[in-house]
């Protein structure tokens, strides 16, 4: 199982003070040093965390694989063709949302998505769609020509252990199996954390996770002792 780290929330901390630290690129390099198989970020229309400047730097320094999440708009396509990430992940985007709220509605947007995806692929970029564990939507992903899909684990992650969560896990299993049989590479992510990841990691068709918030949140806690000690040395 591969792990790609989403560093958006390193940039969220930076933007909380409109500062120049912490540096998402440095976090990306340290994540790679720790064994991450890829770096993920989401460039949003409102640029609330990741900026074009970050993408330019990621492109120069990321040695594993750069996966940029974005909406399927003309403006974003221009950015992708300019930066040339290894993977572009198409996601739905709503301005007021706190985080991506669900998978892309591929069925209703097939005519727009197919040429958009082809253009990205012609530039040598692999294309992914963030999709709910819904077989009809996954079939549409295959039809519009993506190389891989990322199954949305958000519904599963929001539920407490129990029957409802088992059902959500079962939907993910069926979706992974269906996508795999269509020849797609299967990734998964959203809301995965240190408590809920293992049952999803046991699904054999899923080859890669994209995890952000829980890892950045944990890093803030497991790193705080070192940060306090360093400041005490300075002020004593
Ligand atoms: N995959 C997609 C498509 C996302 O939009 C996000 C959140 O930016 C993630 C995965 C990672 O989710 P989380 O931050 O909850 O781990």
Give the full name of the CATH homologous superfamily: Aldolase class I
Strand content range:
15-25%
The total of helices stands at 11
The low-confidence runs, each spanning 5 or more residues with pLDDT under 50, are none
Shape: globular
In the sheet with the most strands, the strands line up as: 1-2-3-4-5-6-7-8
Count of DSSP strands:
8
* Mean pLDDT over all positions: 97
CATH architecture: Alpha-Beta Barrel
Number of domains: 1
Layout of helices and strands:
Blueprint: E1 2-6, H1 8-16, H2 24-33, E2 38-42, H3 52-61, E3 66-70, H4 74-83, E4 87-90, H5 110-122, E5 126-131, H6 135-143, E6 148-152, H7 154-158, H8 163-181, E7 185-189, H9 197-201, E8 206-211, H10 213-222, H11 224-235
The structure holds pyridoxine-5'-phosphate.
Overview features:
236 residues, alpha/beta, TIM Barrel, eight-stranded parallel beta barrel, 47% helix, 17% strand, binds pyridoxine-5'-phosphate
Structure description:
The chain is 47% helix and 17% strand. With 236 residues, it is an alpha/beta fold. The chain has a single domain (2-235), classed as TIM Barrel. Strand 4, helix 5 and strand 5 (126-131) form a beta-alpha-beta unit. The mean pLDDT is 97. Pyridoxine-5'-phosphate binds at residues 6, 8, 42, 69, 89, 91, 99-100, 130, 150, 189-192, 210-214.
């Amino acid at each position: 199982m591969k792990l790609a780290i989403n560093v958006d929330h390193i940039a969220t901390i930076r933007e909380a003070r409109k500062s120049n630290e912490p540096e998402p690129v440095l976090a990306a390099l340290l994540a790679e040093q720790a064994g991450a198989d890829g770096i993920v970020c989401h460039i949003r229309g409102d640029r609330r965390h990741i900026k074009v400047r970050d993408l330019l730097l990621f492109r120069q320094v990321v040695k594993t694989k750069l996966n940029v999440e974005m909406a399927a708009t003309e403006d974003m396509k221009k950015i992708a063709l300019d930066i040339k990430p290894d993977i572009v992940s198409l996601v739905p985007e709503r301005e007021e949302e706190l985080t991506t709220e669900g998978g892309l509605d591929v069925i209703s947007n097939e005519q727009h998505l197919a040429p958009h995806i082809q253009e990205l692929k012609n530039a040598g970029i692999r294309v992914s769609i963030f999709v709910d564990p819904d077989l009809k939507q996954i079939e549409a992903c295959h039809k519009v020509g993506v190389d891989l899909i990322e199954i949305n684990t958000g519904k599963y992650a929001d539920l407490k252990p129990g029957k409802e969560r088992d059902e959500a896990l079962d939907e993910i299993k069926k979706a992974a199996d269906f996508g795999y049989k269509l020849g797609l590479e299967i990734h998964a992510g959203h809301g995965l954390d240190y408590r809920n990841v293992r049952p999803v990691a046991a699904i054999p068709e899923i080859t890669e996770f994209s995890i952000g918030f829980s890892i950045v949140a944990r890093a803030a806690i497991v790193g705080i002792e070192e940060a306090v000690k360093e400041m005490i040395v300075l002020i004593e």
